[in-house]
Write a structure and sequence with these properties.
- The structure is a homodimer of 189-residue chains.
- With 189 residues, the first copy, chain A, is of the alpha+beta class.
- The first copy, chain A, has a domain of 118 residues: Jelly Rolls, CATH 2.60.120.
- Chain A has nine helices and eight strands.
- In chain A, strands 1-8-3-6 form a four-stranded antiparallel sheet.
- Chain A is globular, with a radius of gyration of 18 Å.
- The structure holds a DNA duplex (30 and 30 nucleotides).
Chain lengths: 189, 189
Amino acid sequence: MESLVNTIRAMIAISDKELEYFLSHCLEKRFKKNEILSKPLITPNEIFFIQKGMIRVLITDEEGVEHTIHFAQENQFIADYSAFMLKRPSVYSLQTLEDTFVIVMPKSIIEWGYQELQEGDKLGRLIAEYYFIYQDTPIKNMFALTPKERYDSITEVFPNIHNRVPQHMIASYWGITPVHLSRLKNQRK
Amino acid sequence: MESLVNTIRAMIAISDKELEYFLSHCLEKRFKKNEILSKPLITPNEIFFIQKGMIRVLITDEEGVEHTIHFAQENQFIADYSAFMLKRPSVYSLQTLEDTFVIVMPKSIIEWGYQELQEGDKLGRLIAEYYFIYQDTPIKNMFALTPKERYDSITEVFPNIHNRVPQHMIASYWGITPVHLSRLKNQRK
DNA sequence: TAAAAATCTAAACATTTGTTATCGTTTCTT
DNA sequence: AAGAAACGATAACAAATGTTTAGATTTTTA
């Protein structure tokens, strides 16, 4: 759980004792490639922290077409975060893209953190802020960059994404078909 | 400043004295319709709270085309929130859609709140969480609803939007042309 | 209040993007 | 290691969406 410890300690001050208590209520879990961690209609009761591997957040439309909303990799928190916060049934699915090793953080211990930790709300604020920025960045890129620049710039956040994720999922992340992405790659701009 | 007081007190416990100090460092400001509150390339140093009126967040692409990112109305906080948090030059513009009366909350007093208020971080967390949900909802709607349902459902968040906002801005919010929106309206679904 | 500007619809046409199918290659499964 | 499945490129065609223009209203400005 070292990576989670480092991530939390980079954001807030927390005693060893408190951290130990927090972690003792978390759970380590391994998933194989393409497994579903979280399904629509079920109210999410936990946030995942990725120690190793990769996850995508996706939504399946009425016609059964999958649309990728986010990718997440090592040292990121991931969930249907809106549904988690609103205590409502999730809309997104979470699916592993590789064999993935996560820490499961139950809602109960997160809420304990908000109430009992000196800087619990600060941690929550920072995570929410980062996630907001994380969601906002591709929106900005959509309008500020050409398709070619977008194709290149996605590696800034996900250094090796073009080796780790099939192209058709990147296409679905950008709202285009794989065929169209393949065409764009062969253009100059 | 009553509406801001109510909004804050609905989220956290705060003494009269603290609230008074906070508000004394805020500023009330009036803008006419179509005025620009915040421009690209300038690092935003404040968050706006709308007391009366309506604001849109937009991005202008390389070809000069404007894309609406958000609408915001009474009792909402609004800013290029990513840029504000990252202390980076903003990418979005903020523009009034009506004569608008806002409270300007400078970064300095917001940071004072995080440091000095018992529940300052909690307030920041809740605002970030709400804004996240606010940004996530239309993404979910994009895939879960038909265009007709989207046209109707936008009034759930903005009850009178079709009277307050010209249709071509709603079109730009959905990433389509005004002509295309006009066509969609004449379809059944 | 008159002129100017903005708004919405509509039509004709152009362009972009999607769909389907095929093929060679790579990756997975057993 | 062999067969099956997934993947990415490409082409031909179809469908969706954009562009341009015009005209009838409404709203704003002076």
